Every structure is written in structure tokens, then in C-alpha cells.
Amino acid sequence: MNISIPDNVMTALEILGKNGYSAYAVGGCVRDSLLGNKPDDWDICTSALPEQTAECFADYRVIPTGVKHGTITVIIEKPLEITTFRIDGDYLDNRRPNEVLFTRKLEDDLCRRDFTVNAMALSASGEITDLYGGRKDLEAKLIRCVGCAETRFDEDALRIMRALRFASVLGFEIESETAKAIRLKKHLLRNIAAERIVKEFTKLLCGGCTEILREYADVIKIFLPLGDFAEDTLSFIKKSPADPLLKLSILLAKSTPEEAEKMLRELKYDNRTLKHVTLMLGTKKMALSNSIPQVKRLINRFGEEAVSVADFHLHTGKITPEIHKSITETIDGIIANGECCTLSKLAVKGSDIAALGIFPQNKIGKVLFSLLEKVMDGECENDKNSLIKLAENLNY
Ligand code: ATP
Ligand code: MG
């Protein structure tokens, strides 16, 4: 198979080559190209030391992104990461290596990589270096550790999450020795920073093969103390669009907002995610309807999140696709027409009601809200005279 290397990557490989260094595209871009997918980004590895790489690209903008780890970013049309061949030093605490050593040999750099399918390098001439049977595993759709799986997870337990992530995203099986080691070493995930776990877990959730959640539920439970996954939850996750907030809300749909908040805080999820998921879970008992007054109430309560609530209800099987379509179209129409669903759009204000002199101060808010409800129900025009007349007939 002929892989087409983008021009800017080719330029970088050629410049390094002309300067006497060896250089390859490596990792995910080789894997994805061989699968016939367009890589998101192209990583380059080279025998040049970071300073030498910088010298080679003196005519370009160079950003010293991670010089200590050997990485330099060069802007050729867009940012390209170029990393010196590395040997990882000792690992402590099942995490990142203690030190990195640079090496002149590609083989040293490939053997530290996590999985066979991620450990291939591609030269400017199109030649693939595949020392661990990566191509064979791509064909067999297998995620297999480079070297002894147990050792590799001892070194860096995040690789456990990466294995599950790639299995879900690529639709691959996990090879049996690697799978055995995952189960044996899963507790080591406790040593990994929550943010790093979450990054992989989000990709896993958004992947197409979420069966992996059921198969490796014991691993997921190490960081997410959920009960057993219900079959319907798993099939809802699988069928929903790849939106991380939606997927997470579906995953936690059987929990209370309080339980979900606790779990998400523990995993150091950002506030936006926390707010969104708990908001969705808080709507579980609502029965959504596509009637205009009900849709207006939805907008009143949830504002911009009204569509998300409808999506959540669709993808947890609580409303049909037809009702969902009708609700979201109605939301769009109401918003496009600027129809009144909020107190701020109501044609009377608190001061107008107070000026009538017939309601105690503490009832003004209630009066305003019942006027808003009449407008949303289509029983009263949103104009000041009609609303004042209506208010005069209210008893509070
Ligand atoms: P993606 O498409 O998600 O970017 P990727 O394979 O490029 O997939 P990255 O996380 O960008 O994944 O890592 C780039 C490469 O670095 C991997 O292909 C792999 O060779 C290596 N790598 C990344 N993380 C690890 C790790 N924890 N242990 C060993 N090798 C790793
Ligand atoms: Mg990548």
C-alpha cells in the first residue's frame, strides 16, 4: 500500500535527511494511513537532537514545546511535532518515565511505544519499519502490547486505558495476553492522574465499539464506581452521536445528579461537564411533550440547553425520534421568531405590576410568572395593555 505523505511532512523529513539525520513519520499517522483513514496529525521522529532539529529549521518558526522530552514544534504550513528518538528511563509509580535518554537508533524509539499498531515508522521514500508485527495486527484487528504486556502496564498504567480506547475507536479486539495483563494490572490505574484517565475515557466513550465497556467493566469500575452497566445503557451509548457530554450523561443516566456529581468531581471533570451532566440527570423525571406551551416551558427552564435535554431524552429512549424532531424544530422556530419564553421578554416589568398597587411586594414575582405562563400558553398577547388587564383580574 502506498501511503501519501502530506507535503509539509515530506518537507520536514527531507530537510532532516539532507542534514544527515534519519527521520520518519511515526505512530498514529502510520497506523491510520495503513487503515485507509486520514490521520489527524503527523508526528515525526528523528535522530537529530532537539538543538540540531532547531538548526535544521532555522528558516521556519520553531517552538521549543518539550525540549526536555526531545520535542520541538516546527511550523511548516501548520505545527508539526518533531521528537528525537528516545529511550525511556526508569519508571516510578507506574507513571511517566523518570528521565528520557536520546538515542540515534530508530529501533530503540519504537520499542518504548505502547502497541504494535502504534510502533511503526514510515520513511520519506515510503518504506515502513515494522519490528513488532504491527501490520499483521492491523489486519487481524488486534491491540497488542509491544513486549511483555505486564511489564508495559507496570511501567505506565495509562496504557491500560489506551488499549481500551483504541479497541473502542478502531473496533479492534484486545489480544489475549494483553487482555490478561490488563485485568491483572488494572489496580495500577489508581496511580494515574484523573485528567489523563479522563482524556482516554472520553475517546473510548465516543468510539464506535463501546462493547468494550461491558467486557472491561471491572477496569472501568476502578475509577468510576458505577454498578453493573445495564444493557440498555450500553446500547444507548453505542447508538448516540459522538458528543462527549451526551455520552457521559447517558452513561450516568441511572445515577442521581448527586451521585454523578460525586463521581465526576472525583475524576476532576471540569465544571462545565459537571453542570451539564447533573442538569441532564435532573430532567429524568420530566415527561417531554412537543406541544408549543410545553416546549416554551422547556426553553424557559433550560435556555440554550433545551435542545440538549431533548437529545438526552431521545438517546435514553424516553421520547421517540418523531417527538424529538418535532420538539427541536419547535424550539428552533420559537427562537427564530423571538417569541416570549422568559420574564426578560415579557412586555411588563415588576415595576408595572407594583404600580397597580393591588399586590403585596412579595407576590410580584408570582404575578409576573403567571402572566408569562398565559403568554406561553397562547392565552394572552405579549403586550403591556393586555397583560395589565389580565393582572388586574388575578387574585394573590
Ligand atoms: P491519536 O489518533 O489519538 O492521536 P496516536 O497513536 O497518535 O493516536 P498519541 O497519544 O497522539 O496517540 O501518541 C502518539 C504515539 O506515541 C502513539 O502512537 C504511541 O506510539 C506513542 N505513545 C503515546 N502514549 C504512549 C504511552 N503511554 N506509552 C507508550 N507509547 C505511547
Ligand atoms: Mg496523535
Architecture overview:
The protein has about 400 residues and is of the alpha+beta class. Among the domains are: about 1-135, Beta Polymerase, domain 2 (2-Layer Sandwich); about 290-335; about 345-390, no CATH class. Helix content is about 50%, strand content about 10%. A 7-stranded mixed sheet has the order 3-4-5-2-1-8-9. Strands 6-7 form a two-stranded antiparallel sheet. Helix 17 (about 305-315) packs antiparallel against helix 18 (about 320-335). The longest helix has 16 residues, at about 320-335. It starts with 6 loop residues before the first helix and ends with a helix. Bound molecules: adenosine-5'-triphosphate (ATP) and magnesium ion. Magnesium ion binds next to loops.
Give a brief outline of the structure:
With 396 residues, the protein is an alpha+beta fold. The protein has helices spanning 7-18, 28-34, 50-56, 106-111, 134-140, 149-155, 158-170, 176-185, 194-206, 211-215, 217-223, 231-239, 244-251, 257-266, 271-281, 292-302, 306-315, 321-336, 350-356, 364-376, 384-392, and strands at residues 23-26, 43-46, 61-66, 71-76, 78-84, 86-88, 100-102, 120-122, 128-130, 142-143, 173-174.
Instruction: Give me the secondary-structure category.
Output: alpha+beta
How many individual helices? 21
Q: How much is the average pLDDT? A: 95
Q: Indicate the low-confidence ranges by residue numbers.
A: none
List the strand order in the largest sheet: 3-4-5-2-1-8-9
Global shape: elongated
CATH fold topology of the domain at 1-133: Beta Polymerase, domain 2
Q: Which range best describes the helical content: under 10%, 10-25%, 25-40%, 40-55%, 55-70% or over 70%?
A: 40-55%
Supply the CATH superfamily name of the domain at 1-133.
Beta Polymerase, domain 2
CATH top level of the domain at 1-133 is Alpha Beta
| Total strand segments | 11
List cofactors, ions and other ligands: adenosine-5'-triphosphate, magnesium ion
Largest beta-sheet details? 7 strands, mixed
